[in-house]
Amino acid sequence: MSLNILVLNAGSSSIKYQVFDMSTQQVLIKGLIDRIGEIGSTIPNHHAALEQIVAQLHQAHLPIQAIGHRAVHGGEAFHDAALITPDVMAAMRQMIPLAPLHNPANLEGIEVAQRLFPDLPQVAVFDTAFHQTMPPVAYRYAVPTALYEQHQVRRYGFHGTSHQYVAEQAAQYLQQPLHTLNLITLHLGNGCSATAIEQGKSIDTSMGLTPLEGLVMGTRCGDIDPALHFYLSRELNMSPQDLEALLNKQSGLKGICGVGDMREIQRLAAEGDENAQLAEALFAYRVKKYIGAYYAVLGTVDAIIFTGGIGENSPRIRALSCAKLQGLGIELDNEKNSLASKGISACHSANSRVKVLVIPTNEELAIARHTLKFL
Ligand code: ADP
Protein backbone atom coordinates (compact mmCIF):
# COMPACT_ATOMS: atom_id res chain seq x y z
CA MET A 1 0.00 0.00 0.00
CA SER A 2 1.28 3.47 -0.79
CA LEU A 3 1.98 5.89 1.99
CA ASN A 4 1.43 9.49 0.94
CA ILE A 5 2.33 12.48 3.05
CA LEU A 6 1.15 16.01 2.35
CA VAL A 7 3.65 18.67 3.42
CA LEU A 8 2.26 22.16 4.01
CA ASN A 9 4.23 25.36 4.45
CA ALA A 10 1.69 28.04 5.30
CA GLY A 11 2.90 31.64 5.24
CA SER A 12 0.86 34.76 5.88
CA SER A 13 -0.24 35.08 2.24
CA SER A 14 0.86 31.80 0.66
CA ILE A 15 0.73 28.03 1.07
CA LYS A 16 3.41 25.80 -0.48
CA TYR A 17 2.51 22.14 -0.71
CA GLN A 18 4.02 18.85 -1.80
CA VAL A 19 2.81 15.28 -1.67
CA PHE A 20 5.44 12.57 -1.20
CA ASP A 21 5.04 8.87 -1.81
CA MET A 22 7.15 7.72 1.13
CA SER A 23 7.76 4.25 -0.30
CA THR A 24 9.88 5.90 -3.01
CA GLN A 25 10.31 9.40 -1.50
CA GLN A 26 9.16 10.76 -4.85
CA VAL A 27 7.17 13.99 -5.19
CA LEU A 28 3.71 13.24 -6.62
CA ILE A 29 2.29 16.76 -6.63
CA LYS A 30 3.69 20.13 -5.70
CA GLY A 31 2.51 23.69 -5.93
CA LEU A 32 2.21 27.14 -4.48
CA ILE A 33 -0.88 29.21 -3.84
CA ASP A 34 0.05 32.79 -3.21
CA ARG A 35 -1.57 36.22 -2.82
CA ILE A 36 -4.03 34.69 -0.33
CA GLY A 37 -6.33 37.41 0.99
CA GLU A 38 -4.78 40.11 -1.17
CA ILE A 39 -6.91 42.61 -3.03
CA GLY A 40 -7.91 41.24 -6.44
CA SER A 41 -6.96 37.68 -5.52
CA THR A 42 -9.47 34.87 -6.09
CA ILE A 43 -8.30 33.14 -2.88
CA PRO A 44 -9.83 35.01 0.08
CA ASN A 45 -8.28 32.94 2.90
CA HIS A 46 -6.28 29.85 3.91
CA HIS A 47 -9.42 27.72 3.98
CA ALA A 48 -10.13 28.47 0.31
CA ALA A 49 -6.49 27.81 -0.57
CA LEU A 50 -6.47 24.44 1.15
CA GLU A 51 -9.80 23.51 -0.46
CA GLN A 52 -8.17 24.10 -3.80
CA ILE A 53 -5.33 21.76 -2.82
CA VAL A 54 -7.83 19.14 -1.63
CA ALA A 55 -9.66 19.36 -4.98
CA GLN A 56 -6.37 18.77 -6.76
CA LEU A 57 -5.69 15.70 -4.59
CA HIS A 58 -9.15 14.33 -5.39
CA GLN A 59 -8.68 14.92 -9.07
CA ALA A 60 -5.40 13.03 -9.00
CA HIS A 61 -7.01 10.23 -6.91
CA LEU A 62 -4.36 10.69 -4.26
CA PRO A 63 -5.21 9.44 -0.81
CA ILE A 64 -3.21 11.09 1.98
CA GLN A 65 -2.20 9.29 5.16
CA ALA A 66 -0.67 12.14 7.16
CA ILE A 67 0.15 15.83 7.01
CA GLY A 68 3.44 17.45 7.96
CA HIS A 69 3.42 21.17 8.70
CA ARG A 70 6.40 23.48 8.59
CA ALA A 71 6.33 25.40 11.85
CA VAL A 72 8.70 28.28 12.42
CA HIS A 73 9.02 28.91 16.14
CA GLY A 74 8.86 26.14 18.69
CA GLY A 75 10.68 28.07 21.41
CA GLU A 76 12.11 25.92 24.20
CA ALA A 77 9.05 23.66 24.15
CA PHE A 78 10.05 21.54 21.15
CA HIS A 79 13.31 19.63 20.73
CA ASP A 80 11.87 17.57 17.91
CA ALA A 81 8.90 17.35 15.60
CA ALA A 82 5.59 16.87 17.44
CA LEU A 83 2.29 15.17 16.76
CA ILE A 84 -0.18 18.06 16.79
CA THR A 85 -2.50 18.14 19.81
CA PRO A 86 -4.35 21.03 21.47
CA ASP A 87 -1.35 21.36 23.85
CA VAL A 88 1.07 21.65 20.95
CA MET A 89 -1.07 24.35 19.38
CA ALA A 90 -1.29 26.21 22.68
CA ALA A 91 2.50 26.14 22.93
CA MET A 92 2.79 27.49 19.38
CA ARG A 93 0.36 30.25 20.28
CA GLN A 94 2.57 31.21 23.22
CA MET A 95 5.45 31.78 20.81
CA ILE A 96 3.50 34.26 18.66
CA PRO A 97 5.18 37.34 20.21
CA LEU A 98 8.54 35.93 19.04
CA ALA A 99 7.32 35.07 15.52
CA PRO A 100 4.40 37.44 14.96
CA LEU A 101 4.20 36.84 11.22
CA HIS A 102 5.03 33.16 10.98
CA ASN A 103 3.39 31.34 13.88
CA PRO A 104 -0.15 32.70 13.29
CA ALA A 105 0.07 31.65 9.63
CA ASN A 106 1.39 28.20 10.59
CA LEU A 107 -1.42 27.83 13.13
CA GLU A 108 -4.03 28.86 10.62
CA GLY A 109 -2.71 26.25 8.16
CA ILE A 110 -2.97 23.61 10.89
CA GLU A 111 -6.50 24.61 11.93
CA VAL A 112 -7.79 24.55 8.37
CA ALA A 113 -6.06 21.21 7.65
CA GLN A 114 -7.64 19.75 10.81
CA ARG A 115 -11.07 20.83 9.62
CA LEU A 116 -10.58 19.37 6.15
CA PHE A 117 -8.77 16.18 7.28
CA PRO A 118 -10.13 15.53 10.78
CA ASP A 119 -9.01 11.88 10.81
CA LEU A 120 -5.40 12.28 9.72
CA PRO A 121 -2.40 12.51 12.00
CA GLN A 122 -0.77 15.93 11.65
CA VAL A 123 2.78 16.72 12.66
CA ALA A 124 4.51 20.06 13.28
CA VAL A 125 8.17 20.26 12.28
CA PHE A 126 9.87 23.26 13.88
CA ASP A 127 12.66 25.37 12.37
CA THR A 128 14.04 25.88 15.85
CA ALA A 129 13.96 22.27 17.15
CA PHE A 130 17.35 21.06 15.89
CA HIS A 131 19.08 23.96 17.69
CA GLN A 132 17.63 23.14 21.11
CA THR A 133 20.84 21.23 21.86
CA MET A 134 22.81 24.50 22.00
CA PRO A 135 24.48 25.09 25.38
CA PRO A 136 23.71 28.27 27.37
CA VAL A 137 27.02 29.90 26.34
CA ALA A 138 25.76 29.78 22.77
CA TYR A 139 22.10 30.56 23.30
CA ARG A 140 22.19 33.24 26.00
CA TYR A 141 22.74 36.93 25.28
CA ALA A 142 24.71 39.07 27.71
CA VAL A 143 21.64 40.99 28.85
CA PRO A 144 19.95 40.85 32.26
CA THR A 145 18.98 37.27 33.20
CA ALA A 146 15.43 38.37 34.01
CA LEU A 147 14.87 38.99 30.31
CA TYR A 148 15.60 35.33 29.67
CA GLU A 149 13.68 34.01 32.64
CA GLN A 150 10.60 36.18 32.21
CA HIS A 151 10.54 37.17 28.54
CA GLN A 152 12.08 34.27 26.59
CA VAL A 153 14.99 36.44 25.42
CA ARG A 154 17.63 34.02 24.12
CA ARG A 155 18.99 32.75 20.82
CA TYR A 156 16.86 30.05 19.18
CA GLY A 157 18.22 29.67 15.65
CA PHE A 158 16.22 28.76 12.55
CA HIS A 159 16.57 26.70 9.34
CA GLY A 160 17.07 23.74 11.69
CA THR A 161 15.23 21.32 9.42
CA SER A 162 17.61 22.17 6.59
CA HIS A 163 20.81 22.05 8.69
CA GLN A 164 19.79 18.67 10.11
CA TYR A 165 18.83 17.31 6.69
CA VAL A 166 22.11 18.23 4.99
CA ALA A 167 24.07 16.94 8.00
CA GLU A 168 22.30 13.57 7.66
CA GLN A 169 22.97 13.57 3.92
CA ALA A 170 26.64 14.32 4.59
CA ALA A 171 26.90 11.42 7.04
CA GLN A 172 25.41 9.08 4.46
CA TYR A 173 27.72 10.39 1.74
CA LEU A 174 30.80 10.10 3.96
CA GLN A 175 29.62 6.69 5.22
CA GLN A 176 30.16 7.72 8.82
CA PRO A 177 27.56 7.87 11.59
CA LEU A 178 26.34 11.44 12.11
CA HIS A 179 27.07 11.23 15.86
CA THR A 180 30.78 10.94 15.05
CA LEU A 181 30.95 14.02 12.81
CA ASN A 182 31.81 17.67 13.40
CA LEU A 183 30.33 19.83 10.66
CA ILE A 184 29.85 23.46 9.70
CA THR A 185 26.67 23.75 7.66
CA LEU A 186 26.04 26.90 5.63
CA HIS A 187 22.47 27.43 4.46
CA LEU A 188 22.74 30.29 1.95
CA GLY A 189 19.40 31.14 0.31
CA ASN A 190 17.32 34.31 0.58
CA GLY A 191 17.67 33.76 4.32
CA CYS A 192 21.10 32.59 5.41
CA SER A 193 22.48 30.84 8.47
CA ALA A 194 25.52 28.89 9.61
CA THR A 195 25.49 26.08 12.17
CA ALA A 196 28.25 24.40 14.17
CA ILE A 197 27.41 20.70 14.55
CA GLU A 198 29.38 18.68 17.10
CA GLN A 199 28.99 14.90 17.03
CA GLY A 200 25.77 15.36 15.09
CA LYS A 201 24.23 17.98 17.40
CA SER A 202 23.77 21.72 16.83
CA ILE A 203 25.95 23.57 19.35
CA ASP A 204 25.74 27.05 17.83
CA THR A 205 23.97 28.78 14.98
CA SER A 206 24.08 32.25 13.52
CA MET A 207 20.40 33.24 13.71
CA GLY A 208 19.25 34.31 17.15
CA LEU A 209 16.08 35.45 18.89
CA THR A 210 14.78 36.07 15.37
CA PRO A 211 16.06 35.21 11.88
CA LEU A 212 17.67 38.64 11.62
CA GLU A 213 21.00 37.84 13.33
CA GLY A 214 24.11 36.42 11.72
CA LEU A 215 25.00 36.25 8.05
CA VAL A 216 24.18 38.91 5.46
CA MET A 217 20.96 37.91 3.66
CA GLY A 218 18.94 39.01 0.63
CA THR A 219 17.20 41.85 2.48
CA ARG A 220 18.22 41.28 6.15
CA CYS A 221 21.26 42.93 7.72
CA GLY A 222 22.56 40.06 9.86
CA ASP A 223 24.97 40.98 12.67
CA ILE A 224 24.95 44.67 13.48
CA ASP A 225 25.82 46.98 16.36
CA PRO A 226 22.59 47.24 18.38
CA ALA A 227 23.46 50.86 19.09
CA LEU A 228 22.60 51.59 15.45
CA HIS A 229 18.97 51.49 16.61
CA PHE A 230 19.48 54.27 19.15
CA TYR A 231 21.45 56.32 16.67
CA LEU A 232 18.80 56.05 13.92
CA SER A 233 15.95 56.72 16.29
CA ARG A 234 17.74 59.83 17.59
CA GLU A 235 19.04 61.17 14.31
CA LEU A 236 16.30 60.14 11.87
CA ASN A 237 13.43 59.86 14.31
CA MET A 238 12.82 56.26 13.27
CA SER A 239 10.22 54.24 15.18
CA PRO A 240 10.67 50.57 16.18
CA GLN A 241 8.43 49.65 13.22
CA ASP A 242 10.57 51.72 10.84
CA LEU A 243 13.71 50.02 12.14
CA GLU A 244 12.19 46.57 11.87
CA ALA A 245 11.25 47.20 8.22
CA LEU A 246 14.64 48.78 7.45
CA LEU A 247 16.72 45.93 8.86
CA ASN A 248 14.48 43.07 7.63
CA LYS A 249 13.37 44.31 4.22
CA GLN A 250 15.69 47.06 3.01
CA SER A 251 19.08 45.86 4.19
CA GLY A 252 21.41 42.95 3.44
CA LEU A 253 22.48 42.57 -0.19
CA LYS A 254 19.59 44.78 -1.29
CA GLY A 255 20.64 47.53 1.10
CA ILE A 256 24.15 47.63 -0.29
CA CYS A 257 23.47 47.44 -4.02
CA GLY A 258 19.71 47.78 -4.50
CA VAL A 259 19.24 44.12 -5.49
CA GLY A 260 18.69 41.20 -3.12
CA ASP A 261 19.07 38.35 -5.60
CA MET A 262 22.60 36.89 -5.73
CA ARG A 263 22.43 35.74 -9.33
CA GLU A 264 21.47 39.24 -10.44
CA ILE A 265 24.16 40.76 -8.19
CA GLN A 266 26.82 38.55 -9.74
CA ARG A 267 25.70 39.62 -13.20
CA LEU A 268 25.93 43.29 -12.20
CA ALA A 269 29.28 42.74 -10.47
CA ALA A 270 30.71 41.13 -13.63
CA GLU A 271 29.62 44.24 -15.56
CA GLY A 272 31.62 46.40 -13.17
CA ASP A 273 28.89 47.62 -10.77
CA GLU A 274 30.92 48.52 -7.68
CA ASN A 275 28.06 48.29 -5.21
CA ALA A 276 27.20 44.82 -6.49
CA GLN A 277 30.86 43.84 -6.16
CA LEU A 278 30.88 45.07 -2.57
CA ALA A 279 27.61 43.26 -1.77
CA GLU A 280 29.00 39.96 -3.05
CA ALA A 281 32.32 40.42 -1.26
CA LEU A 282 30.71 41.42 2.04
CA PHE A 283 28.36 38.45 1.88
CA ALA A 284 31.23 35.99 1.43
CA TYR A 285 33.40 37.79 4.03
CA ARG A 286 30.69 37.28 6.67
CA VAL A 287 30.37 33.60 5.71
CA LYS A 288 34.15 33.24 6.10
CA LYS A 289 34.06 34.86 9.54
CA TYR A 290 31.46 32.34 10.68
CA ILE A 291 33.50 29.45 9.29
CA GLY A 292 36.41 30.72 11.40
CA ALA A 293 34.27 31.22 14.49
CA TYR A 294 32.67 27.78 14.28
CA TYR A 295 36.00 26.14 13.54
CA ALA A 296 37.23 27.59 16.83
CA VAL A 297 34.08 26.45 18.63
CA LEU A 298 34.35 22.89 17.29
CA GLY A 299 38.13 22.41 17.51
CA THR A 300 38.16 19.90 14.67
CA VAL A 301 35.96 19.94 11.60
CA ASP A 302 35.27 16.97 9.34
CA ALA A 303 33.32 18.81 6.66
CA ILE A 304 31.91 22.17 5.63
CA ILE A 305 28.60 21.93 3.80
CA PHE A 306 27.18 24.50 1.41
CA THR A 307 23.45 24.43 0.72
CA GLY A 308 20.53 26.72 -0.25
CA GLY A 309 20.11 28.52 -3.59
CA ILE A 310 23.42 30.40 -3.28
CA GLY A 311 25.39 27.67 -1.50
CA GLU A 312 24.36 25.04 -4.04
CA ASN A 313 24.71 27.14 -7.18
CA SER A 314 27.46 29.70 -6.77
CA PRO A 315 31.03 28.39 -7.10
CA ARG A 316 32.23 32.00 -6.66
CA ILE A 317 30.63 32.40 -3.25
CA ARG A 318 32.06 29.06 -2.12
CA ALA A 319 35.51 30.06 -3.41
CA LEU A 320 35.43 33.52 -1.79
CA SER A 321 34.16 32.09 1.51
CA CYS A 322 36.92 29.46 1.67
CA ALA A 323 39.75 31.62 0.27
CA LYS A 324 42.93 31.75 2.36
CA LEU A 325 41.73 29.08 4.81
CA GLN A 326 44.53 26.62 3.93
CA GLY A 327 45.96 27.27 7.40
CA LEU A 328 42.81 25.69 8.79
CA GLY A 329 43.15 22.71 6.46
CA ILE A 330 40.38 23.98 4.15
CA GLU A 331 41.33 23.99 0.49
CA LEU A 332 39.03 23.96 -2.52
CA ASP A 333 39.78 22.29 -5.82
CA ASN A 334 38.88 24.97 -8.38
CA GLU A 335 37.76 22.54 -11.02
CA LYS A 336 35.67 20.38 -8.69
CA ASN A 337 34.15 23.53 -7.21
CA SER A 338 33.16 24.94 -10.56
CA LEU A 339 31.79 21.60 -11.75
CA ALA A 340 29.73 20.81 -8.63
CA SER A 341 26.33 19.91 -10.01
CA LYS A 342 22.84 18.91 -8.94
CA GLY A 343 23.45 15.98 -6.56
CA ILE A 344 25.94 15.86 -3.69
CA SER A 345 29.43 16.90 -4.77
CA ALA A 346 32.77 17.17 -3.03
CA CYS A 347 34.79 20.23 -4.00
CA HIS A 348 37.85 20.10 -1.73
CA SER A 349 41.35 19.39 -3.00
CA ALA A 350 43.20 16.16 -2.31
CA ASN A 351 45.31 17.99 0.34
CA SER A 352 42.37 19.49 2.20
CA ARG A 353 42.06 18.12 5.74
CA VAL A 354 38.48 19.36 5.87
CA LYS A 355 36.04 18.12 3.27
CA VAL A 356 33.93 20.72 1.50
CA LEU A 357 30.61 19.38 0.22
CA VAL A 358 27.77 20.87 -1.78
CA ILE A 359 24.52 19.22 -0.70
CA PRO A 360 21.10 20.25 -2.04
CA THR A 361 18.70 20.86 0.80
CA ASN A 362 15.14 19.54 0.72
CA GLU A 363 13.16 20.88 3.66
CA GLU A 364 9.88 19.43 2.37
CA LEU A 365 11.28 15.91 2.17
CA ALA A 366 12.81 16.37 5.62
CA ILE A 367 9.37 17.39 6.98
CA ALA A 368 7.80 14.34 5.32
CA ARG A 369 10.44 12.08 6.92
CA HIS A 370 9.84 13.60 10.37
CA THR A 371 6.10 13.09 9.86
CA LEU A 372 6.58 9.48 8.81
CA LYS A 373 8.19 8.71 12.20
CA PHE A 374 4.77 9.25 13.85
CA LEU A 375 2.93 6.71 11.68
P1 ADP B 1 14.81 30.62 -0.26
O1 ADP B 1 15.69 30.93 0.90
O2 ADP B 1 13.74 31.65 -0.48
O3 ADP B 1 14.35 29.19 -0.31
P2 ADP B 1 16.74 29.84 -2.28
O4 ADP B 1 17.36 28.84 -1.38
O5 ADP B 1 16.11 29.38 -3.54
O6 ADP B 1 15.74 30.82 -1.55
O7 ADP B 1 17.91 30.88 -2.67
C1 ADP B 1 17.68 32.00 -3.44
C2 ADP B 1 19.01 32.68 -3.75
O8 ADP B 1 19.84 31.77 -4.49
C3 ADP B 1 18.86 33.93 -4.59
O9 ADP B 1 19.72 34.95 -4.09
C4 ADP B 1 19.34 33.46 -5.96
O10 ADP B 1 19.85 34.49 -6.75
C5 ADP B 1 20.43 32.50 -5.55
N1 ADP B 1 20.83 31.65 -6.67
C6 ADP B 1 20.11 30.71 -7.29
N2 ADP B 1 20.81 30.19 -8.32
C7 ADP B 1 22.00 30.83 -8.35
C8 ADP B 1 23.17 30.76 -9.18
N3 ADP B 1 23.25 29.93 -10.20
N4 ADP B 1 24.21 31.57 -8.87
C9 ADP B 1 24.14 32.43 -7.83
N5 ADP B 1 23.09 32.54 -7.03
C10 ADP B 1 22.02 31.76 -7.28
Plain-language structure description:
With 375 residues, the protein is an alpha/beta fold. It contains 15 helices and 12 strands. α1 crosses α3 and α11 crosses α13 (315-322). The chain is globular, with a radius of gyration of 21 Å. Adenosine-5'-diphosphate (ADP) binds next to α10 and α12.
Strand percent estimate: 15-25%
Largest beta sheet: what is the strand line-up?
Answer: 3-2-1-4-6-5
- Which structural class best describes the helix and strand composition? alpha/beta
> What is the number of beta strands?
12
The first-to-last residue Cα distance is 14 Å
Q: What share of residues is helical?
A: 40-55%
Ligand set: adenosine-5'-diphosphate
Tally of helical runs: 15
Question: Rough shape?
Answer: globular
Using the CA coordinates, give the radius of gyration.
21 Å
Q: How do the SSEs run, as a string of H and E?
A: EEEHEEHHEHHHEEEHHHHHEHHHEEH
Largest sheet: 6 strands, mixed
Mean pLDDT: 96
Spans of 5+ residues with little confidence (pLDDT < 50)?
A: none
Structural topology:
Elements: E1 4-10, E2 15-21, E3 26-33, H1 46-59, E4 66-71, E5 82-83, H2 86-94, H3 102-116, E6 122-126, H4 136-139, H5 145-151, H6 160-174, E7 183-188, E8 192-198, E9 201-205, H7 227-235, H8 240-249, H9 252-257, H10 262-270, H11 274-298, E10 303-307, H12 308-313, H13 315-322, H14 334-339, E11 345-346, E12 355-358, H15 363-372
Helix pairs in contact: 1-3, 10-11, 11-13
Tags for this model:
375 residues; 6-stranded mixed beta sheet; globular; 41% helix; binds adenosine-5'-diphosphate
